[in-house]
Structures are given as C-alpha cells and as structure tokens.
Amino acid sequence: MTAMFTLWDLDDANLIGTYSPEREALDVVEKSVRVNGRESMLTVGLGREDETGRTIAVEEGADLIALALHERTSSQPSRRIA
C-alpha cells in the first residue's frame, strides 16, 4: 500500500491536499515558499495516513519549510524522505 501524505492549514483545520509520494507534498510547500514567502506556510502541517486511516503528524510550520527546502538546523535530525 502506498503511503498518503496530507497538507493541512492548522489555523482552520482545512485540508489543502493529499499527495503520494511525500516529495509531492513537499514540492507544494517549496513552491509556495518561493512564490509567496515563508509566512505562507508557517501554519501548514504535513501528515501521513497510517494503515488505519488516521493522520499522524510529520512536520509543521518552520520545520516543514526546512524539510521542503532541504535545510537542516543543528536541532533537526537528518530525515530520509519516503
């Protein structure tokens, strides 16, 4: 089964979209940041649907932006994209 990833607007709990693979969701974040600035994605979260259909938080806000832009700070561990 292919993993599904979701982007959510955390301010109002609206689903932005569903993506597979994860990189597709991260590309949406990256494009929005490049076009609209970092502020456009600060209230967005990335989730992964588990085998029961529940959404598990992956990253949000500044950490999600850093993941999408391939940035890493000393406080963020290296993470392989699914």
Write the layout of secondary structure elements.
Blueprint: E1 5-9, E2 14-19, H1 22-36, E3 44-49, E4 55-60, H2 61-68
How is this structure best described in words?
This protein is an alpha+beta fold. The protein has one domain. It has helices at 22-36, 61-68; strands at 5-9, 14-19, 44-49, 55-60. It has a four-stranded antiparallel beta sheet with strand order 2-1-3-4.
**Chain oligomer state:** single chain
Largest sheet report: 4 strands, antiparallel
The whole-number mean of residue pLDDT values reads 89
Strand content: 25-35%
Number of domains: 1
Which sequence of strands runs across the widest sheet?
2-1-3-4
The H-and-E topology, N to C, reads as: EEHEEH
- The strand count comes to 4
Coarse structural class: alpha+beta
The number of helical elements comes to 2
End-to-end Cα distance, whole Å, is 13 Å
**How does the overall form come out from the CA principal axes?**
globular
Low-confidence runs: none
Classify the helix fraction into a percent range.
Answer: 25-40%
Radius of gyration: 12 Å
Quick take:
By secondary structure, the chain is of the alpha+beta class.
What distinguishing features does this structure have?
2 helices; alpha+beta; 28% strand; four-stranded antiparallel sheet; globular; 82 residues; single chain
